[in-house]
From TrEMBL:
Residue span, FecR protein domain: 112-207
Domain FecR N-terminal, first and last residues per copy: 16-55
Molecular function GO labels: sigma factor antagonist activity
InterPro entries: FecR, FecR_N, Ferrdict_sens_TM
Stored Gene3D superfamilies: 2.60.120.1440
Xref: Pfam families: DUF4880, FecR
Protein name: Anti-FecI sigma factor, FecR
Classification of source organism: Bacteria, Pseudomonadati, Pseudomonadota, Gammaproteobacteria, Methylococcales
């Protein structure tokens, strides 16, 4: 019981434990999922503590009002997992639903789809559209009689739209905190950064509407990209790629500083890479496959006046040579 009262567990670890509980609770997890859960459980003592707390609070589902318990336990698979995870994690963290639901972290972990660091995933929507999620992305999907809505909570998605296959001609939109992007028969990507959203169009066009109703809409054509906030849209500029580089498994560097390149690389790597300030402005060119990020670092060492240092596990520092 002492571990269950502990209040210093990282909320991210609690969220991971709640996610595993939602997966395993139905008793139909694949052997590979069960093995992965066991590995996670033994990786760190805090994982075991978090799991114990989640199990303890999961028992409280039995004391929910009948209607809430029914919704949590009998909904379709995706909705059921989401409901169970939300209810258990709220109890384990000990915050009010209003406090925690407003955090970006909570929104990402309770999204319909969320992708771990270093992974990508392609999903096919019920209308036939395909959505590819980049590393660390989180997405909600909500189809109604009037609209096909994607809510991008974090990260980046690349979308190849299909015609509405039920004949209702519902628009497909992507919403972020900054506004709405409406697809006009197209291939495009939306990237949610901390302070703005970014859109790139690879075929046809999209319409951007910031959250502020007084802000003007803007049509973005194929071969263009821009970024926007809730009150305005920046001028469009040209786009060189046919689709996002990450969707093809590479990072493309076109004369960018080393520091910026490493920010991108860190999104696809377990651990952290940094560089000394005196070499932060070294220019990087080329296309780098993301399959082996260690190989990317060795490539930098071989072609730049730098050397690699590992002060601690999972931390690589790039120094002048």
């Amino acid at each position: 019981m002492q571990n269950q009262r502990r209040t210093t567990i990282d909320p991210q670890i609690l969220a991971q434990a709640a996610e595993w509980y939602a997966i395993l609770r139905k008793g139909q997890a694949h052997p590979a999922e069960q093995a992965e859960w066991k590995i996670w459980l033994t990786e760190h003592p805090d994982h075991q503590t978090a799991w114990a707390r989640v199990e303890f609070h999961a028992d409280r589902l039995k004391s929910l009002p009948p209607k809430a318990a029914y919704v949590a336990l009998t909904a379709p698979d995706l909705q059921r997992r989401r409901a169970i995870k939300n209810l258990v994690l709220l109890g384990a963290v000990g915050l009010s639903s209003w406090q925690f639901s407003r955090s970006r972290y909570w929104q990402a972990w309770t999204a319909d789809y969320h992708i771990a660091q270093g992974e990508t995933k392609t999903i096919t929507l019920s209308d036939g559209s395909t959505v590819m999620l980049d590393s660390g992305s989180a997405l909600n999907v909500e189809f109604s009689m009037d609209v096909r809505r994607l809510q991008l909570v974090a990260g980046e998605i690349y979308i190849e739209t299909a015609k509405d296959n039920i004949g209702w001609h519902r628009p497909l939109v992507v919403d972020t905190q900054d506004g709405r992007v409406r697809a006009l028969g197209t291939r495009f990507s939306v990237n949610k950064q901390a302070d703005y959203s970014q859109v790139a169009v690879y075929a046809n066009s999209v319409e951007i509407q910031p959250t502020d109703p007084t802000a003007s809409k803007q049509l973005l054509q194929a071969g263009q990209q821009t970024q926007f906030v809730s009150t305005r849209i920046d001028p469009a500029h040209s786009l060189k790629l046919d689709q996002p580089a990450w969707s093809q498994g590479v990072i493309v560097a076109d004369n960018i500083p080393l520091s910026e390149f490493l920010l991108q690389l860190n999104r696809y790597r377990q651990g952290y890479v940094t560089c000394a300030p005196e070499i932060a402005d070294l220019r990087i060119f080329g296309s780098f496959p993301l399959k082996d990020t260690d190989k990317i670092l060795l490539n930098l060492q071989a072609n730049l006046p730098v050397k690699l240092s590992s002060p601690f596990p999972y931390w690589v520092k790039i120094l002048p040579r």
